[in-house]
Amino acid sequence: MNNNEKNRYDELMETTPEDQLKYKNIGKKNERKKLVKKILFFSLSAVGIATVFGLAFGIKKPLNDLHVWKNTANLISEDDIDKYISYKKNLNEKQTTLDFIKELITSDNLENSPSLKAIDFKLITNDYELKIVNVIENILSNSVVFDCLLISKLNKKINLVLPNIIISGFKKQERVPLNVKELEEHKKIYDLLDKQPISFKDTKEKLKEKIIQVNSIKNIFERTKKFRDIFYNGFPSGNVPAFVVYDVSFDETKNLFIYEFEPMIFTGTRDKHNGKKFNHFKYVSKNEKITFQKELKTEIVS
What keywords appear on the UniProt entry (predicted)? Predict the structure, then answer.
């Protein structure tokens, strides 16, 4: 395993004999089948870290396991991604997100992947091997998000992470309303953001500069990460966000920090394509943007 990569499934497998016996007993009570066939619903709003695993032993892992990148990972910024890969960002409604995901995840050879060919995906450098991870269907914007892991051919311990590659322009699909559990998770995210104070200590001019910096980022996931790092440093972190930010502003006369956001519920199911099982992850939401206005209680230096 790469040093910069933390696979929660592998952590789970490092259990004691007592733990294994416990799960074996659970299996005897017919819980095993249910746990194997379904990925438990979870949201980053509650735990701050993404975990996906099967709670049964002796079962082959499905494709597209979820990875959480450590802070020490070599994450490449949005501005530098084109130094390593080239690709089309829009598919012009030629196929559905699900068709794209199935082919991308289950392809034995990425060089011959129909999904990557559809977007003219190319590695610019020959120094790295390509691995596609964290493939997620984004119901919010009818797009697909994934990370590219580039592994050095000379030293397998050296790698680069190109996060949040967004492919848009898929065939339009009807959005399914949130179920009861998803609505509960939606409220958790809302409440967590509502209670979290904005943290900023600097001049008003610096505040305005930071707001412009956030709003200028086109990639919505990178924009949200920057927003969280600057203003919400107490919010649970992770490369799978619990919300996305659309616009940020500051009303100087009322001393109000204003931002528009949308909670993102992260869900997963187990699917199968060409005889291969894979994890099908999704971002879903209520399809409504929420505006928070918060008084800046932290010190603004004159």
Answer: Membrane, Transmembrane, Transmembrane helix
Q: Per mean pLDDT, which range of 15-19, 156-160, 293-297 is the poorest?
A: 15-19
* Cα end-to-end distance, the chain, whole Å: 50
pLDDT of 297 reads 64
For residue 263, which of 137, 197, 178 has the smallest C-alpha distance? 178
| CA–CA distance, 104 with 31 (Å, rounded to integer) | 31
Look up residue 75 and give its DSSP letter.
B
What gap in Å lies between CA 62 and CA 66, rounded to an integer?
Answer: 10
Please give the structure tokens belonging to residue 19: 């733990």
Which tens digits make up the pLDDT trace of 86-95? 999 998 888 9
**What are the phi and psi torsion angles at 266 (to 5°)?**
-100, 120
* Chain position carrying tokens 């910024």: 77
Contacts (Cβ under 8 Å, ≥6 apart) of 279 = 39, 52, 62, 63, 64, 65, 66, 268, 269, 270, 271
CA–CA separation, 185 vs 42, rounded Å? 8
